[in-house]
Amino acid sequence: MAIVTELDLPVFDYSAPDLVGEVYHRRLAEAAAQGWLAQGPLSYVVLDRESGEFFLRSRATAFPGRQIAELFGVTGGRLREQIDANILNQSGEHHRRLRALVGPAFTPRAADRWRPAMREFLAGLWDGAATSCEFVAAVARPYPALAIAAVLGAPPGDAPRLHEWSHWVQRQFDVRALATELPRIERAVAEVYDYVEALLAARRDDPGDDLVSALLAAEEEGDRLTRGECVDLVLNVLAGGVDTTQAQLAHALRLFAGHPGQWALLAADPALAGRAVQEVLRYEPITPFTARVCVEEVEHRGVVFPAGSIVAVCAERGNRETEAGEVFDVTAGRDARLLTFGAGAHYCLGANLARAELEEALAFLAPRMPDLALDGDPEFGGVEGIYGLGSLPLRWSAPRDRSPVAALPHPS
């Protein structure tokens, strides 16, 4: 039995500034070729699916939100309050209770209710005449913010603010951002707390057909969410449901621009959208590393991890650990299990909503953007938190049927 601190492990620096695009994938593959475990800057990096699922599902591990916060001096204020209340940082009976109460609001059927609204938002964003755009600004950024506004029962005009808050609140999981932009993250958390409090007060007096009203009414065996729990859960949904979908949709279009045959298949048969989304989630997960801390001593594959050890489960390597896993192919039959949304008790609550948004977007866009191609170099973000794109210039041909909804406008 070996103690992990005594092992001579390969080094994988997930904070390296050039770790984007194909360089990122190549370095991960090189590290994984040396074994299932590597040494990162703040954690050990788990590089295969079996071990990734073990750490994500183990009752001896937990999300290390509090530990990471303390490393960067976040010991009080609204950000610390949010970290302590975040459902990711809950465990045991309290966590099971929250999941049981809110689960019905996040089923596939619940997500499907919002598909007509998603299509309306896409049609509105599409209303233009150009055959090129900067896709992040034109579609990937506004679309999920509009969808989350509708789901929460917030005014559509609030969508830009919701996007901004989501972007900054999510960066509490990005160690580089915590080191350099902590005041901006703290300000966003304070602002969004005030916003959610007001939204809940409005929905309490005038309930509607939305998630906030559903959470306020959520009940199981006589138990109900408290006011504070409702606030924190809505904040979790808002923070986790915009920046993530934006990033995944942008990467989807980038991937398809590089695989024109795959895009043509989807354009010819939009019913492939579900499989296309599954393949995008598998091939380029925008949550490349999911952290866990060992709350007690853990033994796995002959290695002992002392209590307090932090591991980063690599979804990118775990997802590609399948036949022809390095090939992007929407028609391939693959194991449906992915690490993109996590695993075990903390599997992402919003996974069904995210899938619905992505499926609607790909089914809508593919027939309208023939000959999709890059129109310049994408601007990649870092992989420590949400792996997104700052910009994605695209071009395409006018649809053959000369439909009046021919293209996306350039953003002003």
UniProtKB/TrEMBL annotation:
InterPro entries: Cyt_P450, Cyt_P450_B, Cyt_P450_CS, Cyt_P450_sf. Pfam families: p450. Keywords: Heme, Iron, Metal-binding, Monooxygenase, Oxidoreductase. It comes from the Bacteria. One of its GO terms (molecular function) is monooxygenase activity. Belongs to the cytochrome P450 family. This is Cytochrome P450. It comes from Planomonospora venezuelensis.
